[in-house]
Automatic annotation (TrEMBL):
PANTHER family: ANTI-SIGMA FACTOR ANTAGONIST TM_1081-RELATED, ANTI-SIGMA FACTOR ANTAGONIST TM_1081-RELATED-RELATED. Pfam families: STAS (PF01740). SUPFAM superfamilies: SpoIIaa-like (SSF52091). Residues 13-109 form the STAS domain. Belongs to the anti-sigma-factor antagonist family. InterPro entries: Anti-sigma_ant, STAS_dom, STAS_dom_sf. This is Anti-sigma factor antagonist. It comes from the Bacteria.
Length: 109
């Protein structure tokens, strides 16, 4: 897993790549929560280059969503590939998260 971020004031774009699973979830959780601790109120998580995502990672994303929602913030996901999008549809999380098919459509500006 590799994770990078770009901060635009209260908005942060986090780009993840590789496999997001039980082994990488703690690192991802810590990374995302540090960004929230630094004051981000809108978080865009770009999953375009993620090859695999498991339920542990879904739990990380849900925890970040809950934390931001408590303060009126929002998490958007960028998922251009049907194979990952299907996971969110099956679990009903497509109704929890705003999902975009490209970074251009996300709230980064």
């Amino acid at each position: 897993m590799q994770v990078t971020s770009t901060i635009y004031g209260p908005r942060a774009v986090v780009t993840a790549s590789g496999e997001l699973d039980v082994a990488t979830a703690p690192e991802l959780r810590a990374y995302l929560h540090r960004i929230l601790d630094d004051g981000a109120s809108t978080l865009v998580v770009d999953l375009s280059d993620v090859g695999f995502l498991d339920s542990t990672t879904l739990g990380v994303l849900i925890s970040v969503h809950k934390r931001l929602a408590e303060d009126g913030g929002v998490v958007e996901l960028v998922i251009p590939h049907a194979r990952l999008l299907r996971i969110f549809q099956i679990t009903g999380l497509d109704r929890v998260f705003t999902i975009r098919d490209s970074l251009a459509g996300a709230a980064v500006q």
